[in-house]
Structure formats: C-alpha cells, structure tokens
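Q: I have 307 residues here and want to know how they pack in 3D. Can you give me a structure?
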Amino acid sequence: MAVEEWMRSALLSLSKSKGANDLAKRYGLRFGAQRFVAGETIDSAIAKVRQLNDSGLKVTLDHLGEFVADRNEARESTDYCLRTLDAIAHSGVTANLSLKLTQLGLDIDRELCLLHMQEILERARSQGNFVRIDMEDHTRCQVAIDLLLQLREQFDNVGTVMQAYLYRAADDVSALASRHIPLRIVKGAYKEPREVAFPVKADVDQNYKKLLQLSLGAGNYTAIATHDEALIRFARDYTEREGIAPSQFEFQMLYGIRPALQQDLARAGYTVRVYVPFGTDWYGYFMRRLAERPANVAFVLRGMANR
C-alpha cells in the first residue's frame, strides 16, 4: 500500500475514534482545524457567512455532529439546527442548511429522526430556506433515501447528496433526478469496502462525470461539489455544449479549500456555494478533510510546533 493511501486509511479510522474525538474537543479548534471549521458558535459562523457573501459567494451552513446515540443529544442537535435557521433569517445572510440524519437520531429511532426533520423543514419553509441531507456511509444510504422520499411528499425544500464512489450512485441519481430532487454530487469521503465502492480514483472520477450528466440531463438542479479542476472543466464544457443554463446548477466547495478557485468561478458568472461547518463536534469532519489530502497533515504538525 502506498504511503499516502496508508495515511488516508489511518486518518479515516481515527475519524471514528471516540477517545480521539473527546481529546480533540478538550483542546478546541487549535492545531489546524480552524482552517476548515468556522468556529464553534452560531455567531462565529454567521460572521464567516457574511464575509463570504460580501465576496460574492453563497453558503450552506453545517452544525457539525453525527452518530448520536442518545435521544437528548438528538433533540439538542435538532434545536441547534432550528436556531441556525433562525440566525440565518434574522441576520439577512444568504445561506441554507446542511445536516446529517444520524445527528438527529437516525441510529436511535427512524420515526424520531423523521419528526425532527419535519420540524426543521417546516421552519426552513416558513423562512423560504432550503435544507440538504448530507449522505453518510453506505450502511445508511438506503434509509436516508427512503426518509428523503417520505419527506418530499410534504416538503419541496429538501435535497440530498450522491457519492460517486458508490456503485449504486448512478441508479440512485436516475431515480431521484426524475423526481426533480436537488442533488449535490460529491466523490465521497468515508472509508468504504471495495464491495460497495470504487477503490480506484480514476473510476470514481469517471462515475462522477456520469452522475453529473444523469442529473443535469434530466433537467435537475445540481450542485457540482468538487475542488478537482479537471472535473470542473468537464462540467463547464458539458453544460456549455448542451446549452444547460447556469441557473440549473452551482459549484460547491468546502470552507478553507481552494478559495482562489471559488472566486475565479464566481467572477466567471457561476453560482458558487461554500460549505461552512461549525460547532464543537468538529473532529470527525476535520479528520476526513485530512484524509482527502494527507499532505494537509504537515500543515497541522507545523501548527502544533508553533504553539
């Protein structure tokens, strides 16, 4: 196994460590996490959103949290999502909300999670806002899609994410795009077995292109979430060649990654939305960002050495 692949595997394994998560919380957002996480409070997140809006970028806010195993924690996460929506509405910034179903109690009780989602979507709808369900590991993929389809019977302000490294993604995109459910296309950031996911990057990239064509070709609103300039060029060329209006898609990138490229796309007239995570439960998200590009570990180690 190549060194970079070994590091990626190790970082993804560490991302699931409760002990490491507890240790990280104790030391806060030091040692490099602040590069990817916009603080621990709603106020700090809204301040970052305003800065990004002022530079021509839209935002989706994510109050970090996942794999909740306690009903009280699931309720607290739901309340925090509601407060985040209220803060967006009251501040006047341009942002919507992204969330994970496991932080709302999916692993505890599906019906509990459904009730929490209904409450969040009702609040968002009353404020003219949109909520994106982030897709998690493959074991929760089908239940997330089933819950999404149930929610779409009541709400049209909810969409989800499709992960290009999953073999099943093309079938899922075809099914959801035909229902005109807004989709964000990503490569995927979890450690998945080769039985369910493409193990080779080139195959993931090829499948990513296929998913874009399926979603956009169906006339579906599509968020092209990547920092890969080759895939961005492909998307730009494809939409121009097929006469797909820029109003049918947007580019999405993560907070702290390729900010110059974000600005270049915005100046070129494209809608660009930045995924801005915040909160105290940042460890798993941070480790997955390091795993995506292990070279970032050097950045963290330099930060530690300078403390």
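Q: Anything worth noting?
A: Residues 298-307 have pLDDT under 50 and may be disordered. The radius of gyration is 18 Å.
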